[in-house]
Each structure stands twice: as C-alpha cells, then as structure tokens.
Amino acid sequence: MSSDDVVHRCYRDPTLVAQVRERFGDTVVSSDGSVDRVALGALVFDDAAARGALERLIHPRIQAAREAWIAEQRAADPSPPLLVCEVPLLFEVGLADRFDAVLVVTASDDVRRARVAARGQDFASRAAQQMAESEKVRLADHAYVNDGSLQALESWVQERFREYSGS
Predict the structure, then answer these.
(1) I want to staple 44 with a disulfide (CB 3.0 to 4.6 A). Which of 23, 50, 122, 166 is the partner?
(2) In angstroms, what CA-CA distances link 90 with 21, 65, 103?
(3) Phi, psi (deg, nearest 5) at residue 151
C-alpha cells in the first residue's frame, strides 16, 4: 500500500478539498478541483503551524486507509504472504513500531535532490522537515541506496521478499 497514492486520492475528495481550501485559500486548489500539491507544499513546508494543520487533516485519512487495506488483505483467501506499506514519514510520525520490519530505500543527496526537483518541489524545505536519511538508515532493519539501476533495486526487493515471506 502506498501512502502517497492514498494522499493523491484524498486530494481529489471534495470534502478534504473544501477543508484544505478553507484553511489555506483558493491558490492551493487546481482548476480540476483537486488540491495542488506543489502550491500547498510551498505554503506548509516552511511553516510548522500550517504543516501541522495539514497533517491533522490528512494523516487520519491515511491511517484509516492503511488499516482498511491491511484488514482486507488479511481477510483474503488466500492472504498474501507479505504485506508492504510505503510510508514516507514513518519515523517522523512515530509509526515504525506498528510494523514487523522497516526497510528504507534511499538515495544519495544529489539523486534525491534531482528527483524532488523533477516533481517541482523544493528539496531543501522538505529535507529540513524530515529526519536525516542517515538516521532512517540507522533505524531500519534493512536499507538500500537506490542510485543504480532498476534491475539492482528489483533484485534487492526480491531478496527481502524471500527473507520475510519465507519463500
């Protein structure tokens, strides 16, 4: 389950869009009626109070979606051998203890900076509000530096799958 995918869906939900518009103004709503993530990010990443207000709106929705997805997966017959939840702010919001294992996929600062810039976002603002990558790596059960090929990443993921699923 991807927390980012959940956020994207939430930012199209008319109820949340109205709440975000009320708190942050019309400039954070796109012409298609969804939340403009870039515009919203520009307002909240350097403002702790604004970021907190946004987190109080969005984090409960993400948590509810994650819990529903996990319940659905566990109820499936057969259930999957492994459940994976992608949570970008796992350590920052104190969720690491809710999972059996924590795997961190990171990249060098230059690669991360380029990826964030490609999304039209400000790397420095985002990085300043998050735990240092080195600390995330230290706290993880496994970590992978994703500066190489997709094939190398896929190989690492397959190794972790075999390790955790017993396959």
Answers:
(1) 50
(2) 27, 15, 11
(3) -60, -40
Using one digit for the tens of pLDDT, what is the confidence trace for 142-167? 999 999 899 999 999 999 999 999 87
The number of helix segments (H) and strand segments (E) in the chain equals: 8, 2
Q: Enumerate the β-bridge partners of residue 35.
A: 29
Whether residue 45 is predicted with pLDDT greater than 90 in this model: the reply is no
Q: How many residues would you count in the chain?
A: 167
Q: Is 45 exposed, middle or buried (0-12, 13-18, 19+ CB in 10 A)?
A: buried
Q: Considering the entire predicted model, what is its pTM?
A: 0.81
Distance CA(143)–CA(90), nearest Å, equals 14
> 3-state SS string over 109-139?
HHHHHHHHHHCCCCHHHHHHCCCCHHHHHHH
Residues 25, 49: Cα–Cα separation, whole Å: 15
What burial class does residue 67 get, using C-beta atoms within 10 Å of its C-beta: 0-12 exposed, 13-18 middle, 19+ buried?
exposed
